Amino acid sequence: MQIGFVGVGLMGGPLARNLIRAGYSVLVFDLSKEAVDRALAAGDTGKAAGQLRELRDCDVVFTSLPLPQHVRDTMSGASGLYASMKQGSAHVELSTIDPRTAEALAEEASARGIGYLQCTLGKTPAHAEKAEEPMFIGGDEKLADSLADIFKAIGQPCHVGTVAASCAVKLVSNMVGMTNLAVLAEGMRVGEKAGLDRKLLLELLADTGARSFQMDVRGPWIAADDFNARFGLDLALKDVRLGCEMARAWNLDLRATEAALEYFGQASAAGHGKEDCNAVYKVIGRQTARANGAPGKHT
Fold first, then answer.
1. pTM reported for the whole predicted model
2. pLDDT (tens digit, 9 = 90+) per residue, 47-88?
3. 169-291 placed in CATH 1.20.1300.10
4. 90-93 and 60-63 as β-strands: parallel, antiparallel, unpaired?
5. Which of 107, 96, 90, 108 is nearest to 148 (CA)?
């Protein structure tokens, strides 16, 4: 079986390396030569594609790209891979994209005799490197079963139902996580006003209902003024925006998440987009953010 892999950056790179380590023949394409070289260093069964169209004869093509538009540009339309991929092949989409985009891709792939699975990812690049990445798979269950060995080489697969469900799991995860982070930052600002040391406040909150994953992981970074990027703020903004757009399309009014989206938009506009998402703390509680014309909830 010939596997193609488009996008071998922070998330795609570890997954491609896992496939190569498992002995699969993997044809890798990325605009970054450095990223391709890192992927190919995993073993002898990986090769670099000089052009995207070289992946057209692959049995399975994985995509792991930053934005929905990047996935559409790569796969859809007259210049996309769907136009030249063989019937009976499959596209496994790993990116964080919205349900409408995923459903449109699935429909176009099906019209060309190509299988489509949405497979969003649940944790970090570090988990992906160790093949411990939760994989939320949506689409044709028979197709997913036929690729079960490949998925197990990458991470921990779980079929969640529809393509839309797969997208929603990841977006809901990031919506909740980033809204929790914004609320945590608000609480830490209140604690500061009360004269509490940030590190002490976190210790006191650890045995209360305020405790969360974000408090355990990013709370200490905020307390130490550590805003080095692990999950970039602009990526968090993108995911929360996609989640809010998904909810609006389904006529859901998510006021807390919309407020978090506004915070992340302000932080990005203030120049913190390349820092960790915990840099949202820098704009929370500062009345000048809105006065300076930072973007609102529809960023």
1. 0.86
2. 999 999 999 999 999 999 999 999 999 999 999 999 999 999
3. no
4. parallel
5. 90
Q: pLDDT, tens digit, for every residue of 151-210?
A: 999 999 999 999 999 999 999 999 999 999 999 999 999 999 999 999 999 999 999 999
CB contact at 8 A, 90 and 59: yes
Structure tokens at 49: 């594609």
Residue whose structure tokens are 């968090």 = 236
Which pairing describes strands 133-139 and 115-121: parallel, antiparallel, or unpaired? antiparallel
8 A C-beta contact, residue 27 and residue 3: yes
Cα separation, 63 vs 78, in Å, equals 18
Question: What are residue 120's DSSP bridge partners?
Answer: 136
Let me know how long the chain is: 299
**2-161 CATH:** 3.40.50.720
Where do the structural domains in the chain lie, given as residue ranges? 2-161, 169-291
Answer positive or negative: Cα dihedral of 87, 157, 248, 239: negative
d(CA 165, CA 84): 28
Distance CA 221, CA 193 (A): 19
